[in-house]
């Protein structure tokens, strides 16, 4: 156990038995479909993940569930996706104009026949991205709390009731940080494995099938870890109800 996490089970449950592996395979195929059909399969996949999150938040050990009620999973997926999108809007509003100006700069340099504009953009844009990095990391660290609150309440609006989920997050900041670091570590391992696969000719041919499976696995592990951190924070808040002011 690490900060309340049973890492062995959390990392292994998607493939722990034949039934789990069957449902995991379906999830991989859904992610594969999202490479062809825009958005809808991905929303269904994160709707499925939201149901796994609710298991953990309700005190159960995570287990793979049958793929039923596809319409319900789509609605749940829309809730999680919508919360993340709304919270990411400030970042997008800053990032998109900067990226657009970076792409347009070469054409401006050619139009005005001034190469200094081109080189200036190559100097300014990396500095801008470095300055934006702390804000991006803060967003990635905090956003799982409102997402988990949506999973717990099954209400889209719950993600924006900051007075409800912030005390839970604050009570277990260490747990959320550990979850964040574990996910980063798992992502690095998966990335290394992906590079090894890419360099192997035979396995590289299977990339269209391996990549969706890896993406679905990371999706499951990521949200399950944060659901555990949310549950621990909520339990700590319940023990000290007067400390949330």
Task: Give an overview of the whole structure.
The protein has helices at 7-12, 18-34, 40-57, 70-112, 115-142, 144-153, 162-171, 173-199, 201-204, 207-239. The chain is globular and about 60 Å long. The longest helix is centred in the middle third of the chain and has 43 residues, at 70-112. 80% of the residues lie in helices and 0% in strands. It is mainly α and 245 residues long. The relative contact order is 0.15.
Ends: how far apart?
Answer: 30 Å
Assembly level? single chain
Question: What letter string, H or E per element, gives the SSE order?
Answer: HHHHHHHHHH
The major β-sheet equals:
none
Number of DSSP helices? 10
Number of separate strands: 0
Radius of gyration: 21 Å
Supply the helix-strand structural class: mainly alpha
| Percent range for β-strand residues | under 5%
Please state the average pLDDT score. Answer: 85
Helical residue percent band: over 70%
Low-confidence stretches: none
Shape: globular
